[in-house]
Amino acid sequence: MKFDHSKNMEFHPINMEEFNEKLVIDTTVYETKLTKKYLNRKVFTKKDPKKITAFIPGTIREIYVKKGSKVKMSDPLFVLEAMKMRNTVFAHDDGKIKECFVSSEQRVAKGELILEFE
User: Fold this and answer.
1) CA distances, 62 to each of 37, 48, 88, 90, 97 (Å)
2) What is the pLDDT of residue 7?
3) Which residue has the higher pLDDT, 27 or 50?
4) Cβ contacts of residue 83 below 8 Å, gap of 6+?
5) Separation CA 76–CA 79 (nearest Å)
6) What is the arithmetic mean of pLDDT over 41-52?
7) What is the pLDDT of residues 53-112, one digit of tens each?
8) Could you say which of 37, 67, 79, 117 has the lowest number of CB atoms within 10 Å?
9) In what order do the strands lie in the sheet with 113-117?
10) First to last CA, the chain
11) Which residues make Cβ contacts (< 8 Å) with residue 108, sequence separation at least 6?
């Protein structure tokens, strides 16, 4: 039994602006169309390993370090409580704390800067 798609589907013309873009990869030229949505996307930026940011919105419950503290890899830095769970964040490397931007019991948003290493 064949199904006739033409009777059950409506076709609407797509009215998107498209931009032609030429890319050269290894001396080969490719032509592609980029949509306006793609051109307005948030550009990826590599995270700075010296800056520790909140990975989820929550509340800072405890801070184990302060400005000038020397830490070793795996030393606890702070506790971030989110959704009734306490997440202890540990140092990813040896270093010295350049600045602490939060205080205990402070609410933080996702991506907010908490600590910075020198």
Assistant:
1) 41, 23, 9, 13, 16
2) 52
3) 50
4) 56, 58
5) 8
6) 88
7) 999 999 999 999 999 999 999 999 999 999 999 999 999 999 999 999 999 999 999 999
8) 37
9) 51-53, 113-117, 95-100, 70-71
10) 70
11) 54, 57, 58, 59, 60, 80, 102, 114
Side chain identity at 31, as an amino acid letter? E
Tokens representing 88?
């202890």
Q: Residues, the chain, total?
A: 118
Does the pTM exceed 0.70?
Answer: no
Q: What's the pLDDT score for residue 14?
A: 46
Amino acid letter, 118: E
Listed residue (49, 46, 110) closest to 80, CA to CA: 110
